[in-house]
Amino acid sequence: MLDCGMAFSADLHLHSRYAYACSKDLNLANMAAWAKVKGIGLLSSADFTHPAWLAELEENLTPVEDGAYEFDGVRFVLGTELSCIFKQGGAPAEFICWSLPPDSMPSTASVRCSRSCIPS
């Protein structure tokens, strides 16, 4: 368990190998290995809305507590980046939000539904 009174390092802005222009070697094993090298105790699983990645997360992450999961001694929380692209004053603009869902693994069906309910 991560002690809130204790300092720790976290990286919550990550991507999986399913994200555009990311290494195909970006998997849980490599993420955990590099987190250990860098002294990072908590990572975001990143891109959990991708169906293949979500299936991998469900298969390989072990629930621990408070919505956290573990893989090879490194804690993970689910997360995904939301890129909001729009026009402002006729010019393209963008801001990025990071979403951390509630404390349980979403089902593939609920992720699919939430993605299809977004108006275009």
TrEMBL record:
<protein>
    <recommendedName>
        <fullName>DNA helicase UvrD</fullName>
    </recommendedName>
</protein>
<dbReference type="InterPro" id="IPR016195">
    <property type="entry name" value="Pol/histidinol_Pase-like"/>
</dbReference>
